[in-house]
Every structure is written in C-alpha cells, then in structure tokens.
Structures
1.
Amino acid sequence: MIEVENLTKRYGEKRAVDRQDSVVQPGIVTGPRLRRPVNARDLHPGDLMQQCDWTLRVCDVTVSQTTVAITVTEFGFPLHYAADTRVQLVACRAEPRASDPPAIRPGI
C-alpha cells in the first residue's frame, strides 16, 4: 500500500498539487491514461469509478443485453445503468486474483 499525506507540488510559482492525501491499495493501477470514460458494461470488480464527487470501488458487475447493475462497496444497493452508458474510470485492478468473483455475470 502507498500512502501520501499533505503532498504539494509546485512548478515555479504554479501550485499543481495542493496538500493532497491519497492511498493506493496493492494491485491497483492508476495514472492519467486510466482516468477516462468507459462503457458501464466494461467495468470489473476492483475498478474504481467516479460518480459525481464520489470515488466508488466496484464489487460486482451484472450485465444483461440492455442494462448493467454495478455493486459498489460504498452503497448497499446496485447502481443501474444502460449498458452503453459512459462512466468515469479512475483506476483498475492490475491483475485479477483467484479469489475475485467473476467479472461479468449474465442476467439481471
């Protein structure tokens, strides 16, 4: 695990990062190229997605032909989307673990 507290980065007079706290769990890949919109049906358990001001950890993804139910650790209920809805991917799991549930389960 990587923990950063009160990180500030300046470029000359410009402050690019101001007192940022962050934690990155083992096996999670982050970076500017990962922060991008993806279809809801393309999310996998372990991914982090951005919904408004919330960063949400995906626990389960259930896909039908037209809808996706995404269960996240922060809520006790699934979030429902049309399968082609664009959501903001923030980070993704580097490699699936043997203990991970299947990434996609058919049927809702």
2.
Amino acid sequence: MSCFQPQLAQFQKRSLEDAVKAMHLTPEDPVFWIEEKLDGERMQMHYEDGNFMFWSRKAKDYTRLYGSCFDDGSLTRHLRGAFDPGVKRYIRSYLISYLLLILTKHIVSSSTVR
C-alpha cells in the first residue's frame, strides 16, 4: 500500500446568504439540504486483506495510533466485522468521526481515539 496526496479543499469566503442565493431556490422548489460536518481527523484509511494504514492530508503516517490490524490500535480493533468478507481492498478519506458515530451511535470528539 502507498499513500497519495489528496486534493485539498479550496476555502470560500462567502456568507451563508450567498450560498443560499447560489442555489436558485424557487417557490416550486424551496427546499435544500445541508450536511453537517462532523469534527474529526481528515485521514486516508487504506485497508488490504486485514491490514490497515492511515495517513493525514499531509501524508503523515498515523497507522501506529489508529491500528495496523484488527488486533491493535485505538480504532481498528472496533472494525472487525465491518467489512463484507468479499472486500479485499478499500480506501476511504475523511472518516474518523464518521466511524466513531457508526460504532458508538453518538457523536464523539476525534480526540477520543488518540
């Protein structure tokens, strides 16, 4: 497995009002959804045949902290059974708080797994 540099988000200096105007809401279609951002680490998680590796957006290796397999780490030990048996490789970014929410059914600070 190897890390690759993810595309970093471009920050916009617009107000919420500008964002709502840009959606061009009409009386016929007045509704839109906003997904709430969960607090957390922006990580790439690579999974391959029972082994994990974690990298930050700046390519710092966090595998020792979060775990390299199902038997160690603060996060991976909770993931046993989370993957379909047919999954051999999986890459996911921006996942730490999402996984904590799924595992604990509560919104948890990302510092909980450190």
